[in-house]
Design goal:
InterPro entries: Endo/exonu/phosph_ase_sf, Endo/exonuclease/phosphatase, GPI-anchor_lipid_remodeler. GO terms for molecular function: endonuclease activity; exonuclease activity. By secondary structure, the protein is an alpha+beta fold. It has four helices and 16 strands. Strands 1, 2, 7, 8, 9, 10, 11 and 14 form an eight-stranded mixed beta sheet that branches. A six-stranded mixed beta sheet has the order 5-6-4-3-16-15, covered by helices on one side.
Length: 343
């Protein structure tokens, strides 16, 4: 009997090692910088006034009827019907946007949570007048939690759409890493950088970002330091820098409630260099996912906004209140002006 138990334990250990080894071998290991697009025939932006929108679409799976196990809820994913309907509504909304640039976060290519729909291809096909660039920030062959209904495969990332054809687009890793083995199943956070030629010979550098959500704050500090280094380096070259997306943090001067599962820490007042400008609305951009959305009861926060280098100025910033019907985020639209573009 003892020998049988030893053999059984040995077999279980071997199976466990094989499973862990499989996940370790298939771990997504992106390089610090990866070129995702190069365009020989790029456009030169000649106008000084431009409009941009940022929206975390929550893989069209975090609509008003959804709570989420990672945020204290019970559900792993919504219905297929809701996922398809949400994506269609999101695309219809964006088709009516007449601005210049679109930042999208949490858009899936082939994930269990979104029923295998290639949302990147679908959105691209629905926006024929826009150029598109995409990079991964979550690529896990299988997420084995929760035990009762595994999250499954996740292939997801950031997408930037633009009326003008960019010079190039790159994935820039944000440098944060969960400890092993948790990192095998978590996002590898990144920015999607798109670069556009300006009339003055410099470049407009757009940084579409999605920072960590579920750490104590230590990973976000690493990410924020990296964002600052990239942005200030570009500005010193004379380029104009616009950073936007889902920061998973409150902007300076804003503080909202936290839960056991999500703490939107506040960005320090002294984070941005002198004369850089934060552009945000004080109305909620994100709702918490510990329960299906109930207006007036479900907690909300402000984590979607922009940061502009001194050679750009925000003219207006508006939150579009969609009632969190199709995503746990509301889109943010900013009109901004470039300085000295014609110099």
């Amino acid at each position: 009997m003892v020998r049988y138990l030893r053999y059984s334990l040995l077999i279980l250990v071997m199976i466990g090692l094989i499973i862990v080894g499989f996940f370790a071998i298939t771990e997504y290991r992106p390089k610090p910088i990866e070129i995702v697009q190069v365009n020989v025939l790029s456009d030169t932006i000649k106008t000084d006034t431009l409009t941009i929108i940022t929206w975390n679409i929550g893989y069209a799976g975090l609509g008003k009827n959804m709570d989420f196990f990672f945020d204290g809820g019970k559900m792993v994913r919504g219905t297929k019907e809701d996922a398809i309907s949400n994506l269609s509504t999101i695309e219809t909304f964006l088709q009516k946007f007449h601005g210049d640039f679109i930042f999208i976060q949490e858009i899936d290519k082939n994930s269990t949570r979104s029923y295998g729909v290639d949302q990147v291809a679908s959105l691209e096909a629905s926006m024929p007048n826009f150029n598109t660039a995409f990079c991964l920030n979550y690529n896990s062959i299988y997420v084995p939690v929760p035990i009762t209904e595994n999250y499954g495969k996740v292939i997801s990332g950031l997408m930037t759409l633009s009326k003008a054809t960019p010079k190039n687009a790159s994935r820039i890793a944000l440098g944060s890493r969960y400890p092993w083995p948790r990192r095998l199943f978590m996002p590898k956070r990144a920015m999607l950088e798109t670069r556009f030629l300006l009339s003055n010979g410099k470049e407009l550098v757009l940084l579409n970002t999605h920072c960590e959500a579920y750490d104590s704050g230590s990973l976000r500090r690493v990410e924020m330091q990296h964002i600052k280094e990239i942005a200030t380096t570009e500005y010193k070259k004379g380029n104009t820098v616009i950073i936007g997306g889902d920061w998973n943090q409150n902007p300076p001067g804003i503080s909202t409630s936290s839960t056991k599962y999500f703490n939107p820490i506040q960005i320090p007042q002294n984070y941005a260099p002198t004369n850089w400008t934060w552009a945000f609305q004080t109305q909620p951009t994100n709702r918490y996912l510990y329960e299906p959305y109930c207006e007036g009861n479900t907690s909300t926060t402000i984590i979607d906004y922009f940061l502009l280098s001194p050679n750009a100025k925000p003219l207006s910033v508006n939150r579009i209140d969609l009632g969190f019907k199709n995503s746990d985020h509301n889109p943010i639209v900013m009109k901004f002006m470039l300085y000295n573009n014609a110099d």
